[in-house]
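As the work plan foresaw, our protein records have gained a structure token line. A representative record is set out beneath this paragraph:
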Amino acid sequence: MPKGSPELTASRREEIINACEQLYQTMNFKEITVKEIGKATSFTRTSIYNYFQTKEEIFLALMQREYDLWVCDLETLMQEHTVLTPDELAHALAVSLEKRKQLLKLLAMNHYDMEENSRPENLTEFKKSYGASLNAVRNCLIKFCPDMSGTEIEQFVFVFFPFMFGVYPYAVASDKQITAMEQASVQFTMHSIYEMIYNCVRKLLERNKL
């Protein structure tokens, strides 16, 4: 880690993550390199290696930030509401993930590579944020669905979180992908992130007879 104040280190890391995020809007994961990320920052590519050893570590930090933002949204939801019906909870969770489109994209596209090519300490920090998101969803269920048992809550969580990995490809498709589906005569209807999350949550809650 480079010498300097914790504030400077945090600022430099944030600038690198922001540069990666900016590139990810127009480039795919394979196209983005540490060199390209360096061009979008105010310092040299070599300096980036003082903070991240691989581009996967930068992407992992970006995904960690997305999880942290989602947790903040869920905590705000719990602070602002005393009671939510199953329909209102499904709506709220759908809205919260509709805002986190980038998180869903990262989960669908490159999650495994990011974890495998990151140092253990970086992966551990990421897992803390991931764990916080699991707990935030659990706490929402405990508060807004008091009739759910502990087992039912765990069943919900471990259906819902794997489901999140597949949302982005079903909500976002390129013209090339759509054309291929049409030429293959595949019956397929695109749905929004909101629709898929809402319907999934409602089905899971109905299964628990709420």
Q: What stands out?
A: The longest helix spans residues 55-80. The chain has two domains: 1-52, 56-207. The chain has a mean pLDDT of 93.
